[in-house]
Design a protein that fits this description.
The chain has 323 residues and is of the alpha/beta class. It is 36% helix and 14% strand. The protein contains 12 helices and 12 strands. It has helices spanning 14-23, 37-46, 60-63, 85-90, 103-118, 121-129, 158-171, 199-205, 225-230, 248-256, 276-280, 295-313; strands spanning 5-8, 25-27, 49-51, 72-74, 94-96, 150-154, 174-178, 193-195, 208-211, 236-239, 262-265, 284-286. α5 crosses α7. The chain is globular. The structure holds (2R)-2,3-dihydroxypropanoic acid. (2R)-2,3-dihydroxypropanoic acid is lined by residues 54, 77-79, 102, 291-292. (2R)-2,3-dihydroxypropanoic acid (DGY) is lined by residues 54, 77-79, 102, 291-292.
C-alpha cells in the first residue's frame, strides 16, 4: 500500500523530520520559507495531510480552494486560532493540535518574562554590554521584588496552572485567577489560588497579570484601555498566550502614561511586527514567540503531530482531534 502524502509547511525538529520521512511520503520545506496562500492551497490539493504551524493562516480563503485532497491538518502547536475550524470541518478536514507537551516549557518562559521585567534584566544587560556600568551602588537599577506578590492569571488551563505552581511554590506568590470555564477543585490543589468572578477583579488585585487564555474572536483585545486603568500603577503585564488578546496600541499608551509599570511579551498583535513604541521602552521585555522553543519540547510537539496523523491514517480518532 502506498504511504500517505504529507506536506510540512516549515522546518521541524530534525529528528521529527526524519520520522515523518520514514513513515510517510513527505515533502519538507528545506528553506523554511513562510508559505503563501497559493502554496497552502496547493498543499491542500496535493497531499493527504498538511502539517501547518501556528504561523500559517489556514483561514476560510485558504480552505475555500477547490479539489481539496487533504483529509487532516496536523497542526504543530497547542493554539489553533490560526485555523478556521468551521471552514476546515466544512471542507471535510480533521484538525489536531499538540496540547500538554509544551505546558512546562511555556510556563517556564512566562516566569522568565516576569522575572526579567520585574528585575530589569533586559535593561541591565543592555546597560552592561553598552559599557555604561560604573559599578555597584545602592540606588542602581532598583527593580521590583517578586516573592510574596500577587499573580493574576487570565485563563486557568494547563499552562496557567503550571505558572501558578511555579509562582506559589517557588516564589510564595498569592494567585488570583479568572476563567469562564474554571478547572475542577482538585486541579487547583496546592496552588494557593483564589477564583475571581471577572477579569476586572484580577486586574485590580494583581501585581503581575499573566495571560493564558486562547486567542480568537472571544478574547480579541480583552486587555485594552479599560483593563489597564483597572490595573495597579506598579503592575506588570505578561503575555505568552496570543498577541491579539492585548490591544497593543492601548498597551503602549498605558505604558507611556505610567498606568502600569511594565510588560513582558512573547507574542504580538501583528507578529512578527512589533509596535515601534514598545521597541523604544526599557520597561518592556520582548521575546520572539519562544514559549515552546526548546529542543525537547519542539521534538515532543512534532512527535505528537506524527502520533495524531498516524492514528488518523490507521482509521483511529487522533487523541488531539479538535474537529
Ligand atoms: C502554540 O503552540 O500555540 C505556541 O504559541 C507555539 O508553541
Amino acid at each position: 500500500m502506498s504511504k500517505p502524502r504529507v506536506i510540512v509547511t516549515r522546518r521541524w525538529h530534525p529528528e521529527v523530520e526524519a520520522v515523518l520521512t520514514e513513515k510517510f511520503d513527505t515533502q519538507l520545506n528545506p528553506d523554511d520559507h513562510s508559505m503563501s496562500v497559493e502554496e497552502l492551497q496547493d498543499a491542500l490539493r496535493k497531499a493527504d495531510a498538511v502539517l501547518p504551524t501556528v504561523c500559517d493562516k489556514v483561514n476560510a480563503e485558504v480552505l475555500g480552494t477547490d479539489n481539496i485532497r487533504a483529509k487532516i491538518l496536523g497542526s504543530n502547536g497547542v493554539g489553533f486560532n490560526h485555523i478556521d475550524l468551521e471552514a476546515a470541518k466544512a471542507a471535510g478536514l480533521t484538525v489536531t493540535n499538540t496540547p500538554e507537551v509544551l505546558t512546562d516549557c511555556t510556563a517556564d518562559l512566562a516566569l522568565t518574562l516576569l522575572l526579567m521585567v520585574a528585575r530589569r534584566a533586559g535593561e541591565g544587560e543592555r546597560h552592561l554590554r553598552n559599557g555604561e556600568w560604573t559599578g555597584w551602588r545602592p540606588t542602581h537599577m532598583m527593580g521590583t521584588s517578586v516573592s510574596g506578590k500577587t499573580l493574576g492569571l487570565i485563563g486557568m488551563g494547563r499552562i496557567a496552572r503550571a505558572v501558578a505552581a511555579r509562582a506559589a511554590n517557588g516564589f510564595n506568590m498569592k494567585i488570583v485567577f479568572h476563567d469562564p470555564f474554571p478547572p475542577m477543585a482538585e486541579d487547583l490543589a496546592g496552588l494557593n489560588a483564589t477564583q475571581c468572578d471577572s477579569p476586572q477583579e484580577v486586574f485590580e488585585q494583581s501585581d503581575f497579570v499573566s495571560l493564558h487564555c486562547p486567542g480568537g474572536k472571544d478574547t480579541y483585545h480583552l486587555i485594552g484601555a479599560e483593563a489597564f486603568s483597572a490595573m495597579k500603577s506598579g503592575a506588570f503585564l505578561i503575555n505568552t498566550a496570543r498577541g491579539d488578546v492585548v490591544d497593543e496600541a492601548a498597551l503602549v499608551a498605558a505604558l507611556q502614561a505610567g498606568e502600569i509599570a511594565g510588560a513582558g511579551l512573547d507574542v504580538f498583535e501583528k507578529e512578527p511586527a512589533v509596535s515601534e513604541g514598545l521597541l523604544k521602552m526599557e520597561n518592556v521585555v520582548l521575546l520572539p514567540h519562544l514559549g515552546s522553543a526548546t529542543q525537547e519540547t519542539r521534538k515532543a510537539m512534532g512527535m505528537r503531530v506524527v502520533e495524531n496523523v498516524e492514528a488518523f491514517f490507521n482509521g483511529e480518532t487522533p487523541r488531539d482531534k479538535l474537529v
